[in-house]
């Protein structure tokens, strides 16, 4: 594959990143820090926290609730309210950090597993309007129950699937899901 020589590159524009300069990810997707957001204040270093991990885009710190040993919150440093509203780059960075911290807890800290929890939006009981994931490190027989008791929903699953599906089904498969022949 032919490569451009330095004199063949377009002139640098100080307003835009050049061809060889990194483009800051997530900056176009999410907003600036908000003074009224405790997680923004933590990310900016204006409020204290027990940091577990930090990189250019994310921060992981212990939840002050003290409800479970090692209960960790992972946030994007850029303010975004929830998963539905965040940019793809922010979501990718966040999930990389969630995975990395989870692996560290299991492979290096003596835990056997983790629960990953997220509430996105007020109706989902999101308590702080800044996107965050909870990592709850788990040990066998630790006595924690991190699963909500949801009860029973009687709605037909095929009907729910038709409402929620993002997959375009061929007509024959659609008939099978509807219970037809």
Automatic annotation (TrEMBL):
Residues 1-31 are annotated as: Disordered. Pfam families: HIT (PF01230). A motif (Histidine triad motif) lies at residues 130-134. Residues 38-145 form the HIT domain. Residues 1-18 have a biased composition (Basic and acidic residues). PANTHER family: ADENOSINE 5'-MONOPHOSPHORAMIDASE HNT1, HIT FAMILY PROTEIN 1. This is HIT family protein. It comes from Neglectibacter timonensis. The lineage of its organism: Bacteria, Bacillati, Bacillota, Clostridia, Eubacteriales.
